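Notes on consecutive records. When two proteins share a document, each keeps its own sequence and its own token line. Never mix them. Below: protein one.
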Amino acid sequence: MPEVSRFLGIIIKMMYADDDRHHKPHVHVYYGEYRASIALDGELLAESLPARQLRIASGWIALHEDELYAAWNLAVAGRPFPKIDPLR
């Protein structure tokens, strides 16, 4: 699963052709032993993260929404997408 970004111990990943299970654009977020699927609109779709990391990841997703939708469109088409600089 390709990595989209990494910051503050949080890893954001996106799978290719991953539009059948949750049926909406989303990312997979990892923090230590925790993991979650978060829709690009901010909805928590599966599993969980500690509250602080969930807020941080959700805020980052909101800030990078346009870039993430562009990456999503490439990923569901099976095409590589660029990493997103977490500090931009």
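Protein two starts on the next line and is unrelated to protein one.
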Amino acid sequence: MHLLGTFIKPMHREGIKFVAIFAAVTFVLFLIWPFLGWIGVGLTIWCYYFFRDPERITPSRPGLIVSPADGIVSLIEPAVPPKELGMADTPLTRVSVFMSVFNCHVNRTPIAGEVTAIAYRPGKFLNASLDKASVDNERNSLCIRLPDGQDLAVVQIAGLVARRIVCFIKPGTQMQTGERFGLIRFGSRLDVYLPPNVEPLVSIGQTMVAGETVIAELPTSHDG
């Protein structure tokens, strides 16, 4: 059973219709030419794994900020949060996590708090690994108010082949660290704007696991 669970992961409900479509097309391809049918089988399996939604073990220590996405840290730089969130125009440290089409695409809340604002903005579909994707691409931005009153922003950014940003929550929702809040189809990026005076604990090129990998920690009162 343990070995089976290594390969078979739960699938998010958003993927059911897509896997069904892939399977139906695969059936037709088998009728046309078995070789094409087997290609369809491979693509159907890929579609299933794209929408996989494995359980994650989130660190329980208060003040930890975890990665909202699986993928690779592609950028760490100062940047102003999306203006549609209404946050201050002071640059904050932005940590960008790039998701390829092979990563799990379920997005998770970086830290516990109240979602005070959600703002969608249409845009382009540039390669999500590019710096200008944060400004030009279609995006969905969330502002999370932390218990100490500070704000953290997390932004879902569509990529080159992504054509749908999904967000499951609404403003006013109280979220716990590592809770699922959305996903993006197919291949994209998540930006986290850290609160002031919070330094990232990750490096460019580092592999992230959504809901598990710690990307930063809030300073405690005895830190000065």
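For the record: The chain has two domains: 2-50, 64-223.
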